[in-house]
Design goal:
Blueprint: H1 9-12, E1 17-20, E2 26-27, H2 45-52, E3 62-77, H3 88-101, E4 106-109, E5 116-122, E6 130-133, E7 151-163, E8 167-172, E9 176-177, H4 179-193, H5 199-211, H6 226-236, E10 245-247, E11 250-253, E12 266-269, E13 274-277, E14 282-284, H7 286-293, H8 306-309, H9 311-325, H10 333-344, E15 347-351, E16 353-356, E17 359-366, E18 369-375, E19 381-385, E20 388-392, E21 397-403, H11 437-451, H12 456-469, E22 482-486, H13 493-503, E23 507-510, H14 515-525, E24 528-531, H15 539-549, E25 555-557, E26 562-563, E27 566-567, E28 570-572, E29 578-582, H16 589-592, E30 595-599, H17 615-645, H18 652-658, H19 663-670, H20 673-676, H21 683-701, H22 705-721, E31 736-741, E32 744-750, H23 751-758, H24 766-772, E33 777-788, E34 792-804, H25 808-818, H26 820-830, H27 843-855, H28 859-876, H29 896-915, H30 919-930, H31 937-942, E35 949-955, H32 961-964, E36 970-977, E37 980-987, H33 995-1003, E38 1004-1007, H34 1009-1027
Parallel strand pairs: 5-9, 15-21, 22-29, 22-30, 23-24, 24-29
Antiparallel strand pairs: 1-2, 1-3, 3-5, 3-7, 4-5, 4-8, 6-7, 10-11, 11-12, 12-13, 13-14, 16-17, 17-18, 18-19, 20-21, 25-28, 26-27, 31-32, 32-34, 33-34, 35-37, 35-38, 36-37
Helix pairs in contact: 3-4, 11-12, 11-17, 12-21, 21-26, 22-24, 22-25, 26-28, 27-29, 28-29
Length: about 1050
């Protein structure tokens, strides 16, 4: 049987699972064969588990998974004897893995219990699997084909592994291991156990050794030997080669440049003058050895074709040989002539955007090719030029700046049209006028709305982001937020990235943002990146994202690049906007906190969006996108200075959000004000975006390990405050108890109770997570009663661990960061002037706002605030009863609690007063005046609606009262805003199951009351502006 609780979280969340039969053949859930190379035959763990545990199942005996390139597997087969003893060769491998992971790795028994499987996250794939067969000690250990069953196999991709969850020695943590470290361990393994390999394996190893001594002609230097080089560099690197020892015809030891995890990763053959690095799996001759020892070549990047593509490096090595080893280089007259000509040749530099002597040069695409458009700080276009020529005094030569060439799909110039879009970098054309920034905003949003289904606020957010992306490199700011689009397969993530890529100047669409590629395209184009199906976080991706976010962050490159004649460390700045799409949040909360989140996990209902972008639709998309790129280019030229002039102007209403927002999130939200300052018409929408992003941030945080623990802790505390009785059969003792520690009284949550809720996977790390949350843990001796199954009630004294309930100030911080109910409550209360439990409340101001709502007969809103005041008190008023050693300085002494009690009483009186008036009649009259013609009066008179259900909807379609008569609903209010229709309906209960009502809900999206009211207020403002 499979021990499902032991499956690591990373594996649980990946769709890589299959079933297997008694022969260990991989099978799909439908019974067909699965393929380790075809993800379409894999499935989720839940689906696989459901089939395996089906009582009718007789075909499947277990589960397994397929390596997808991110996970590696080591198979130690038939290494356990009948007495449970582990063979020495397998034990050595286990100990080495334990050493490099500090004893934190995942290891389980195989289904036969005769071997082990070790799984780990890899940082790269190997070119081919590692397979080493071990000789058997007797014929009993031979398989049916007379071959050995003992072997070690290592795979990084395209392989099926069975999975048992039968963990060995508590090794249940899936960690990352560097493949280079695995290569070193295997090389030592081969040396140590060579005699135990089968003859076939020994022969293959010797053939591999012969193969690695073959080198290219341009890596040979007959004038000096490897022995002479080792003598020279041994002094340079403090006798590093003294640790080498002889193994056969080779000398082996630690690499003096990048070190070794095993002390045995570099081999040198003095007879053949060759070297080989086991860490990186390649080697070479004299010239490459000099280059690596001189740090001119990176050992990791070296390959046999290196000098063919890096002739300048070979020339530099030749100079080193001449200067350090006295090797004279033969130089032809032709070579001398070329060098003299090169001194007089101007240096060519390619770039897309730069500034020179107060003018800005930006690359554009015209009918005559790529050119620079030149403009000044005031937004005046000077001219267009093919190139810029200047004289560099430091080099004593001319420098010519040319437009960066378009990225091509081949190594030659792309002169012919081939499959795919030839414009990989979306260069703008000559800039064209667009009216006002608000006009441009509406054009971009209309384009986005046409081709992809998004929530209204997300459309606005992405439009703002595209506008800021068009000027990002000209703005005086340090940070550039990311956007992270999340959603399941088939919900439009790729479509969204595609249409945004087409309209954003200097952008590129890719699925690879590894550091080497990103730094090079950033130097040429300073692009905006759209990244589809990003992978899980690793160090390389983390470095790129941090460097994109922060203008001051850099990616360092050493030993290879040459800059103005000097070799050394070069810093690449690659900041800029980046939009990523994926199915799950990053496993790094710090990175996720630098992103706006867009959740596309909702039901797609719009029928007007083209299903496929092809034919005439595709042609129109390209035409519209080019026009918007050209408009955005004009926006870049005309408005970058105006944005900079207002960049420190933070709206007063935005500052209110700072009180309820995490500082990093507030910095993120504040970035939207850059564009809002020049489009003040969008204030209300941006306020809603802020509210939604605050909520989304809390939801995202609650999915991290810290968030899961914090939410569980807060749930226990809230249940305790509300006096909830705990099921004694579920917990051995009460989950929350009073206790004494060092003579002081406390109240805390039992860690044992938290384990039972969170699962055993959190057992080893719960204390560490609580510490990061700022929650103290105490281990104390407790006496308590419990029900014994046989003997009934018993009293026991034992040591238990508790998470101490902190002071209210700390609890409030946890609620702000991890509790979505608290955030929803504060966002609603903020609208009438209440910004937090720990803030002073202006009672008169809040009463005034409530009076205004009542005058408008907005009784539903007043009712809503009565609920929120009650919830406010329910959350926090009982905190005073918690024995948390609260000092007199506690926020509980704040008048906020008393203020809320006063307001709750005031609201109750206001509601009772309003209910005794004709306010409901006024509300109907008010709505009729605002929406003439929207009600079918005759329909209302003929049939009285008996329901108390009020529901609110938004739709692309227009409906009248006659339509709603089909399911006996009354249209209370209706208005139109931004091409969408909003409806308030009174619906009888028996109509909710009516088929005609269900048809209506398939064409409309249900929204809440506050959303409906917000949109109605905005439509009123627009109507006022239009009348003016």
């Amino acid at each position: 049987m499979v021990n499902f609780p032991n499956i690591p979280e990373y594996l649980k969340n990946k769709a890589i699972w299959v079933l297997h039969n008694a022969k260990k053949e991989p099978l799909q859930v439908n019974g067909l064969y699965a393929k380790s190379t075809d993800p379409n035959t894999w499935n989720t763990l839940d689906n696989v588990k459901k089939v395996l545990e089906d009582p009718k199942n007789k075909k499947f005996t277990g589960i397994g998974f397929c390596l997808d390139g991110t996970i590696s597997g080591i198979d130690l087969d038939h290494c356990i004897d009948d007495n449970g003893n582990i063979d020495g060769w397998a034990l050595y491998m286990i100990q080495e893995i334990s050493r490099i992971t500090k004893n934190e790795f995942y290891m389980e028994y195989s289904p036969s219990k005769r071997g082990f499987h070790i799984y780990f996250l890899n940082n790269k794939e190997t070119k081919k699997p590692i397979i080493l067969d071990i000789k058997n000690e007797d014929d009993k250990q031979l398989n049916n084909e007379g071959k050995t069953n003992k072997h070690i196999e290592i795979y990084t991709h395209s392989r099926f592994f069975t999975f048992t969850g039968d963990v060995y020695d508590n090794h249940n943590k899936l960690t990352q291991i560097d493949i280079d470290d695995i290569n070193e361990i295997i090389e030592n393994f081969i040396e140590k156990f060579f005699d135990k390999f089968t003859p076939e394996t020994q022969k293959r190893i010797k053939n591999d050794e012969q193969e690695r001594t073959r080198i290219e002609n341009n890596d040979i230097e007959p004038s000096i030997t490897m022995q002479e080089l080792v003598d020279y560099y041994s002094i340079l690197y403090s006798n590093a080669f003294n640790q080498f020892r002889k193994v056969g015809k080779e000398f082996r030891g630690p690499h003096p440049i990048h070190g070794s995890s095993t002390g045995n990763n570099l081999a040198i053959n003095f007879e053949k003058n060759v070297w080989y690095c086991f860490r990186h799996g390649h080697g070479g001759g004299i010239n490459s050895f000099i280059g690596i020892m001189e740090k001119t070549i990176s050992c990791e990047e070296w390959n046999s074709n290196y000098f063919e593509t890096h002739t300048e490096i070979l020339e530099k090595i030749n100079k080193i040989k001449q200067e350090k080893f006295g090797i004279k280089l033969k130089q032809t007259k032709k070579k001398e002539k070329e060098e003299n000509e090169n001194k007089e040749k101007p240096e060519i530099i390619y770039s897309s955007k730069f500034k020179y002597q107060g003018l800005y040069y930006n690359e554009i695409q015209t009918e005559k090719g790529y050119k620079f458009i030149v403009f000044d700080e005031e937004g005046n276009i000077k001219n267009t030029i093919d190139e810029l020529e200047i004289f560099d005094e430091s080099l004593g030569k001319k420098i010519i700046f040319k437009p960066a060439p378009q990225i091509t799909e081949r190594k030659y110039i792309n002169l012919i049209e081939e499959f795919g879009d030839p414009d990989i970098i979306k260069f703008p054309g000559y800039p064209i006028e667009f009216g006002t920034p608000y006009d441009l905003f509406k054009d971009i949003r209309k384009y986005t709305h046409k081709y992809v289904e998004l929530k209204s606020l997300d459309e606005i957010l992405l439009t703002f982001y595209v506008m800021e992306s068009s000027v990002f490199d000209l703005l005086k700011k340090f940070t550039y937020p990311m956007i992270h689009i999340l959603g399941p397969h088939g919900h439009g993530k790729t479509r969204t990235l595609t249409i945004l890529n087409y309209i954003t100047p200097y952008s590129i669409y890719t699925d690879n943002i590894k550091a080497p590629a990103t730094k090079r395209i950033s130097q040429l184009y300073a692009p905006v990146l759209f990244v589809d199906e990003k992978g899980q976080m690793d160090e390389d991706l983390r470095a790129v994202l941090n460097a994109r976010y922060n203008r001051n962050a850099v990616i360092l490159n050493a030993d290879k690049e040459i800059q103005r004649g000097f070799s050394g460390v070069i810093a690449y700045r690659i900041p800029g906007p980046i939009v990523l799409a994926g199915r799950e949040v990053f496993n790094d909360p710090a990175i996720e906190s630098k992103s706006f989140q867009i959740n596309m996990d909702f039901e797609l209902k719009r029928k007007d969006i083209p299903r496929d972008l092809k034919g005439e639709i595709f042609d129109n998309l390209l035409k519209e996108a080019k026009e918007l790129r050209d408009k955005l280019m004009m926006f870049r030229i005309k408005y970058f200075k105006k944005i900079n002039e207002k960049i420190n102007e933070t709206p007063e209403w935005l500052k209110e959000f700072e009180e309820i927002t995490d500082p990093r999130l507030y910095e993120l939200l504040n970035s939207l004000s850059d564009i809002l300052n020049i489009i003040p018409e969008m204030k209300e929408e941006v306020m809603q975006i802020y509210e939604e992003q605050i909520k989304q941030n809390v939801l995202t945080e609650s999915k991290t390990p810290e968030g899961v623990v914090a939410k569980m802790f807060l749930d226990f505390v809230r249940d305790d405050i509300e006096g909830k009785e705990f099921d004694s059969s579920e917990y051995e003792t009460e989950p929350i108890k009073n206790y004494k520690f060092n003579g002081k009284g406390y109240r805390g949550v039992s860690l044992k109770a938290m384990y039972s809720e969170l699962g055993e996977n959190y057992k080893t790390k719960l204390g560490m997570i609580l510490s990061r949350l700022g929650i103290e843990t105490h281990r104390v001796r407790i006496t308590y009663e419990y029900n014994d199954a046989k003997e009934g009630k018993k009293t026991i004294t034992k040591r238990l661990s508790f998470a101490r309930i902190p002071e209210p100030e700390k609890l409030l911080q946890l609620f702000k960061r991890y509790d979505i109910d608290y955030i929803n409550m504060i966002i609603i209360l903020k609208k009438i002037g209440i910004s937090g439990f720990d803030k002073e409340i202006d009672i008169d101001q809040v009463k005034k706002r409530l009076d205004e709502l009542a005058e408008l007969d907005e009784l539903n809103i007043v009712y809503r605030y009565e609920d929120e005041f009650g919830k406010f008190l329910k959350y926090f008023s009982n905190f005073t009863s918690l024995p948390c050693n609260i000092n007199s300085s506690s926020i509980l002494s704040s008048p906020s609690i008393k203020s809320i009690e006063i307001l709750l009483d005031y609201t109750n009186k206001k509601i009772k007063s309003s209910e005794n008036t004709e306010s409901n009649k006024k509300l109907d009259d008010y709505d009729k005046g605002a929406n003439q013609g929207s009600l079918d009066q005759k329909g209302q008179d003929d049939e009285k609606i008996q329901s108390n259900f009020y529901e609110y909807y938004v739709s692309e379609y227009s409906f009248d009262q006659k339509y709603f008569d089909n399911f006996k609903a009354r249209l209370k209010r209706h208005f139109e805003y931004e091409m969408r229709h909003y409806y308030e309906l009174e619906i009888p209960e028996n109509s909710l199951s009516d088929d005609k009502y269900k048809i209506f809900t398939s064409k409309a999206q249900k929204i809440d009351f506050l959303k409906f009211e917000d949109m109605r207020e905005r439509s009123k403002e627009v109507n006022k502006e239009e009348k003016k």
